Amino acid sequence: MRAMIARLLAAGTALLLASLAWLFALLRNP
Amino acid sequence: MRVPRLVVPAPVRALLWIAGYLLLAGAPLVALLVNPGLPGNGLVWDFAVALGFGALALMATMFVLTARFRRLTAPFGIDAIYFFHRQIAYVIALMVLLHPLLLLAEEPLLVEYLKPSAPPYMLAGVVSFAALAALVASSVARRALHLHYDLWRRVHVACAVLAVGAAAAHILGVNYHASTAGTRWLWYGLPLACGLLFAYVRIVKPALALRRPYRITRVVPERGRARTLRVQPDGHPGLRFSAGQFAWLSWRSSPFAMREHPFSISSSAEHTDAIEFTIKELGDFTTALSAARTGERVYVDGPYGSFCTDRVPAPGYVFVAGGIGIAPMLSLLRTLADRGDRRPLHLVYAYKDLDSLTGGEEIDRLRARLNLGVTLVLSQPPDGWEGERGWLSRAIFERALPPERRPFHYFLCGPGPMLALAERELRALGVPLGHIHIEIFDLV
Predict the structure, then answer these.
(1) Long-range contacts of residues B189-196, Cβ cutoff 8 Å, at least 24 apart
(2) Residue B413: phi, psi to the nearest 5?
(3) Is A14 close to B438, i.e. CB distance below 8 A?
(4) Which of A9, B78, B103, B110 stands 20 to 30 A from B254 (CA)?
(5) Which residues contact B46 (CB under 8 A, 6 or more apart)?
């Protein structure tokens, strides 16, 4: 259970950072 | 007037820590987003650059995750934190891999910047990449590479420091998204924060441990190439632990030496004057530990872990142990016995053979003090054995467990493959996932 939550959280972190990185790129290249 | 202490429930604390973690991980990129700035260099290029920034931010969070802050780790269990640390490492590896690949796809001429003649800040990027690759490879394949645990830890820490330092040098050297005052402090601040955490973990904490030594006051040989070490605090009150927790033990080395190993506490949490560890000879350190003598000094970093019945009140508990996974179960059972607990308990103990059964006599004594059923599952049973044999299975659990087991909670500890099997079979039996508690002990 805790391992599953840890995996989900890691995936969520990856998604968050990828989204922020994409947003960073979008804002600089309108 | 006494101000009532604000008690935040564990799930809320866990959510707050998770929110804090995401904030910390995302902060550098958010800071760059709000920092008005420099012209763009194309969507893919800037995305690749931002992946690099994000990877460094995640690397920095690793120093927090592994600093063993008890307040931070308690709501999750430190084993889950280390497991998360490994998952995040894969995320970082992917981001760090994509960073140069996307940049090279955009500008193939960049390959010139990967040669030894490249400017130092580019070499710093290559060094950071290589350190991270070495770090991940040495962790994933430590056993396959026959890398000694102590040596692996030193390599691990050295590579981590190098990866962060070199990555920050790379960003500062490229000097594009670090050229304004607002962004520059970020790339100085991140490695500085990592350095402070590193100093805390490697200098301050060991120095504090030095002032809290323990002495081995008894060494009891156990069956199954195991022994129980009883240690007592030497000149300080010692530590209070919950049954089922574990601690890192340093023996014949200074707390600065990074030669500590995690072991489950096997004694009752109701007795705080001494702590016992029941340890099986499984590797270099545990085998060397057979030379441990009464009177020797040890250092204890703990307690950690959330493998505790006290955290999940239930009308009954089932303990599933494999091999030396019996150690935390002994602590849980002894503690419940000392409290005069009369709730129904059942121990399913998977072991090789009867002759070398670790803790066998103690389990018999505990049966007399508790409402405890015991099922032994032997993989090499003696002739004439009429009990359970082979691998743990749904059928064995069905025969072993009491019919009123539905609201019970299950605690599983043992070798990885056994845990996976036991969890699957219990799930097949209809045990809810939230009722199964596993110590994720297989660190590397």
Answers:
(1) B190/B28, B190/B56, B190/B57, B190/B60, B190/B164, B191/B60, B191/B164, B191/B165, B193/B60, B193/B63, B194/B59, B194/B60, B194/B63, B194/B161, B194/B164
(2) -145, 130
(3) no
(4) B78
(5) A24, A25, A28, A29, B40
Contacts of A13 in chain B (CB under 8 A): 21-22, 25, 58, 88, 91
Full strand arrangement of the beta sheet holding B297-304: B260-264, B246-251, B297-304, B214-222, B226-233, B275-280
How far CA B395 is from CA of B191, B377, B407, in Å, comes to: 55, 12, 19
- Between CA B157 and CA B288 the distance in angstroms is 24
Interface of A with B (CB under 8 A): 1-7, 9-10, 12-14, 16-18, 20-30
**Per-residue pLDDT tens over the stretch B56-109:** 999 999 999 999 998 898 889 898 999 999 999 999 999 999 999 999 999 999
pLDDT given at position B37: 67
Q: Which of B412, B350, B26 is nearest to A17 (CA)?
A: B26
- Tokens 């057979």 sit at which residue? B290
CA distance B432 to B75: 21
Q: Which residues of chain A make contact with B32, given a CB cutoff of 8 A?
A: 24
Place of tokens 């280390």: B82
Residues of chain B with Cβ-Cβ distance to A16 below 8 Å are: 22, 25-26
B106 touches A: beta carbon within 8 Å: no
Helix, strand, coil percentages for chain B (3-state, nearest 5): 50, 15, 30
CB contact under 8 A, A24 and B29: yes
Chain Cα centroid distance, residue B338 = 29
B411 and B329 Cβ atoms separated by less than 8 Å: yes
Whole-prediction pTM:
0.88
CA B218 to centroid of chain Cα atoms: 28
Are A10 and B436 in contact (CB < 8 Å)?
A: no
Given a contact cutoff of 8 angstroms between Cβ atoms, the answer to whether B157 and B143 are in contact is: no
Q: Does pLDDT of B284 surpass 90?
A: no
Percent of chain A exceeding pLDDT 70 equals: 100
Could you give the CA distance from residue B86 to residue B62 in angstroms, rounded to a whole number? Answer: 10
